[in-house]
Design a protein that fits this description.
The structure holds two protein chains of two kinds.
Chain A (H helix, E strand, L loop, with lengths): L1 H23 L24 H8 L12 H9 L13 H13 L8 H9 L13 H7 L37 E2 L3 E2 L3
Antiparallel strand pairs in A: 1-2
Chain B lengths: L1 H14 L2 H5 L3 H9 L7 H9 L2 E3 L4 E3 L1 H5 L7 E2 L6 E2 L14 H16 L5 H12 L2
Antiparallel strand pairs in B: 1-2, 3-4
Helix pairs in contact in B: 3-7, 4-7
The chains are: A mainly alpha, B mainly alpha.
Amino acid sequence: MKLKLLVIFSLLAAFVVVWGLSFADDDSDDGENMRLWNKTIGVTPNNNTVYEQECGSCHFAYQAGLLPEQSWRNIMNQLEEHFGENAELDTQEHQAILNYLTDNSADKSNARHAKHIMRSLSKDQAPLRITEVPYIKKEHREIPARLINDNPKVTSLSHCNRCHQNVAQGSFSENEVLIAGYGKWDD
Amino acid sequence: MNRLIAYMVIMPITLMPPALVASPSNTLFSDYAQASTDPFSAERGQQLWNQEFLHAKSKTLRSCAVCHTDELTQYGKHKRTQKTIAPLAPSVNAERLSDVKKVKKWLKRNCKWTLGRECTPQEKGDLLTFIQSK
């Protein structure tokens, strides 16, 4: 009987230690009740060669889970005037990329940031820019302009990869941030 | 007999002008040539390359050279996004003009960006002839 109690007690103790450790290396991004989720994926990484080649040859290939389906539809509908550039695709590639983006958009994703993004948008909101998503804006509000817009090595919040080191793996974790031309970011 | 077959295969290849053998984009050239009146000219291509067009919306002058520079063996830089652009001259960048689909895609996009319209087959042929000569 004593032995049984001892086993139960040590199992409990081990559980508490493991639980504690999972808090310890946590990046505590927004203090919400989401700490345990930090071990889950931030955003699902890209998984489509056509998308990565066609879009990624001009800019960082933003993961599909960073915008809702309607946003991607609107963006893909006006590629001739894509933020001031002509980014027209031929029909085959256009369809393949549209399918990929809408199949994997934020509203269909279980990834942590995708859920935050959707929660921050009202039902009919479909921003054309990821930098206009309330959640993304909120996450960056403490960073002064001199480190982003006025920083010649960054120039805009839209260049995710210039500060987020493991962005290709879908990680936007705060402790991996290295601001170009500045260094680590501690708030 | 074997020799005869070998000759039959080798002869047409050796008779082809080197440019045609070297460039997979020759199908593009013949497509554009069919829809053009004049033989392609690198000189005319160069003129168009450097010609400036007023972009009404931004009130700025645009030309091919604005981003690609007029020295095709050099790196260019996108005027607005500052993105580095690898040299277009096939002599220093063998990838150039090797992928027909890519050539068509960028001719379409960049003619629209620069001239505000698609280029005619004649203009495309002239531009490609100019680029290929570099």
